Amino acid sequence: MHQGIMKAWLESSHLSGSNSTYVEEMYEAYQEDPSSVSEDWQVVFDNLPAVNGTSQDIPETAHSKVRDYFRSLALEGRAKGASRVTDPELDAKQVKVLQLINAHRFRGHQNANLDPLGLWQRESVSELDPAFHGLDAEDMQREFNTGSFAYGSDTLKLADIVKALKSTYCGSIGAEYMHITDTDEKRWIQQRLEPSLGKANYDISTKKRILEGLNAAEGMEKYLGAKFPGAKRFSLEGGDALVPMMREILYRAGEAGTKEIVVGMAHRGRLNVLVNVLGKRPAELFDEFAGKHDEVQGSGDVKYHQGFSSDFETPGGNVHLALAFNPSHLEIVNPVVIGSVRARQDRRGCKDGLQVMPITIHGDSAITGQGIVQETFNMSQARGFKVGGSIRIVINNQVGFTTSNHEDVRSTEYCTDIAKMVQAPIFHVNADDPEAVAFISQLAVDYRNEFKRDVVIDLVCYRRHGHNEADEPSATQPLMYAKIKKHPTPRKIYADRLIEESSISADDVTGLVNTYRDSLDAGDCVVKEWRPMTLHTVDWTPYLNREWDESYQASMELERLNNLAQKIVDIPESHKLQSRVAKIYKDRVSMADGEKPVDWGFAETLAYASILEDKKRVRITGQDSGRGTFFHRHAVLHNQNDGTTYLPLRNVADEQGEIDITDSVLSEASVLAFEYGYATAEPGGLTIWEAQFGDFVNCAQVVIDQFLSSGEQKWGRLCGLTMLLPHGYEGQGPEHSSARLERFLQLCANHNMQVCVPSTPAQVYHMLRRQVVRPMRRPLVVMSPKSLLRHPLAVSTLDELANGSFQSVIGELDALDASKVERVVFCSGKVYFELLDKRRKQEITNIAILRVEQLYPFPQEEMQAALADYQHVKDFVWCQEEPQNQGAWYCSQHHFWAAIPAGAQLTYAGREASAAPACGYPALHARQQEELINSALKLS
To answer: Has domain 558-728+738-803 been given CATH number 3.40.50.12470?
Structure first.
């Protein structure tokens, strides 16, 4: 087959096989980098016959064999009348021309005109010079085959080829895409860039639209600067092209059928985007600058953290826009945005990502400096997290905060090099060329929709003021800011260009400026495409103004629960289970039949089944969520014969809610942020993130501090995310014991989230169901057990699941004479069973044990009810496994004091204060554990 391909190629080529030098140079180039030769030659060399029966993957093939092989094919071709006369010298130069073309595709961006200020000191790339390839002035008027270069005819004069290459790859656009391995993607980009020489051909109406965007960007910044001098606004000036860029992206996406776009961005230019793209009324922004605010509950947040939603009219229909609220930890919003997009796509049943698109806007220092960016890139094609690609824009003002040298903020040539890890194409573009910006914006949307992958736009611009308007930038960048002071604004540069080419008159330019300023004075929306929101696909109304103790229907008919139990243990016979998993499911069959008590994994799975039967969505992610870190869940069953998977939970009813259980990438921060974003866009179902070990959640502390715990108070954003954090002291050392309960309790206020420590299967069943059935949507933090998953005392009955409810406090269950009780021990979690076991063995009858299953919001009424029979007791103890400075003691003891009778005393039984969460020596752990149990039970 390969001989036929090559013979056909040789017969149609200008070569007849006589040019051995040509073949050898081509082959050497191919061996160094296959992409450096034309695609035709790649086919030829890819199909070379194996040497001595070995694979063609072996890189080196003797040149003499290649030459002889081509000669034999050429002779064979001549015998069939295909002989042609060639010029060996010209053929050799033809190779060099093709190498020159590839050099521009690979490295043209390094000599592109990208810096509006002209400050970049970039070394000349010798491979871009025809002389480097042995092509001289005499060759400039010769015609050469252009190979796969997609411009003009198949043959052009070398001078025209060079001119076309410089225009395409060394102009206002620097295209990096040859790192992509997929040939179709590279060819697609070439077909978009090369025929037009990297330039757009816009009509006058489009040019005017671009100018209007620049006019709006500059006009608002100047207005704010004059009206509120010195106020922080993180001006967009210098990067004004972001506004027309965003508008072109919206138009293009709307034409392609996109219905929703979620945007995440940091401070720089945020106010400008809010007013000039999303359509926030300037009057509202001015009130915020003046310090006015609505008398609403909550702390609020600074102007440049605020989000906004609106609808934007495009020729293809209205597009719903949502700008995510953003804390000062800049890049952490990116996975939140992606999670929100995934939820919207799932709700729409959109599998290809076309209907909902994310846009994330980065700073040049932040995109390369913040690890969360790498984590989000890593998720971009992962099964449980992909959204059909993101458009990532970098506002590259060439300086981070006050850093004076880019070598201080990164170790790579470009701040966007991080994107190469997922083979995303990167388009650097000079922000002072707004038509190039618009051209790349449209190309980016088309690429994303075509290949369902991330694409990066590096908007190379500058920052006209300091990091904020009170900062003096010339202190650290004197040369840059000397240049900036003399540099015309992007609006003026483009307006002058349009006037010069007679696309618009000077009077019209002045009229646009005045009209926009008048609109700002009026305070009304300045975005003519703005429309009232009608495209919402989710209604949050049922979940607003709800409280944590609101009543709800917790119970269900036992018959219904029995039916669900049978459904989730019904496994096809052809699906062969691993032996240990088979034993688990054999036990679950007995539990479903009422022959065995219900264990943790079965109760948890029943909770999901009941939610799904109610047609609500369930989403669970974590590093071992399918099976459960501690081998207890096994909701995803792997066939031992062929590796296929089966989810019994997808078969609980003919019509049921969707369920996704996905083992996540090895990340806490990005995945938790993703799930937070998902939950903020999907209030109806149950969204769960499970930590592999609870301690690992500290890698996501930013998400907890700046979104989960405070998002409602700062931004009014409700979120029903559930976090399962394995917690318990079993002697596994400092990093596998504690989920840092104290950190969550310290963040609790204003009923912002729930912190629960369930101790029985019935409790976890009701707790999970409550998170969906109850109409309140606030985060649920669960100190999830490890040893209790298989503890013989931590069991429940199906009746407790069907007819019970979540108990925030569980009182004394043994038949003690309450009047003889002299001490009451409060505790949470697995330590209860150790206390209970020791008390029974020691036959202690004067000490009662109460479990606090919900530490926040603290259940005062339930606690009072549980203590009703112990009002005579003066000795109360809080017992915990955690060190004294950790756990619930410091954060919750005021609740315990408020609950105990007047005049009673409250003491502590637990480990001493410690810098580490737990000890690492098993013997020391056992001794400490015995001491705290004995202390609580008054044993020596």
So the answer is: yes
Question: What does the alpha-carbon distance between residue 14 and residue 155 come to, in Å, rounded to a whole number?
Answer: 12
| Those residues with Cβ within 8 angstroms of residue 49's Cβ, 6 or more apart along the chain or in another chain | 2, 3, 69
> What is the rounded CA–CA span in Å between residue 677 and residue 412?
31
Residue keyed to tokens 């080419």: 501
Are 190 and 148 spatial neighbours (Cβ–Cβ below 8 Å)?
Answer: yes
Compute the distance between CA of residue 813 and CA of residue 793 in angstroms, rounded to an integer. 12
Domain ranges of the chain: 1-86, 204-531, 558-728+738-803, 809-936
Single pTM value for the model = 0.89
Q: Quick check: 630 and 788 in contact, CB under 8 A?
A: no
Please tell me the class of the 204-531 domain. alpha beta
Cα atoms found within 13 Å of the Cα of residue 244, Cβ hemisphere only: 29
Residues with Cβ within 8 Å of residue 572, at least 6 apart in sequence: 646
Instruction: Tell me: pLDDT of 899 over 60.
Output: yes
Contact by Cβ (8 Å): 114, 428: yes
Among 91, 97, 96, smallest CA distance to 164 is for: 97
Rounded mean pLDDT, 819-831:
97
The stretch 909-936 carries a mean pLDDT of 96
The strand pairing partners of 318, in sequence order, are: 313
Q: What's the CA gap between 602 and 588, in Å, rounded?
A: 7
Q: Which amino acid is at 546?
A: R
Q: Is there a contact between 824 and 870 (Cβ–Cβ < 8 Å)?
A: yes
> What is the pLDDT averaged over residues 646-670?
96
Instruction: Provide the pLDDT confidence category of residue 465 given band limits of 50, 70 and 90.
Output: confident
d(CA 635, CA 569): 10
Residue type, 391: I
Domain covering 809-936, topology: Rossmann fold (3.40.50)
Question: Distance (Å, rounded) from C-alpha 639 to C-alpha 937?
Answer: 49
Q: What's the pLDDT band for 16 if we cut at 50, 70, 90?
A: very low
Which amino acid is it at 482? A
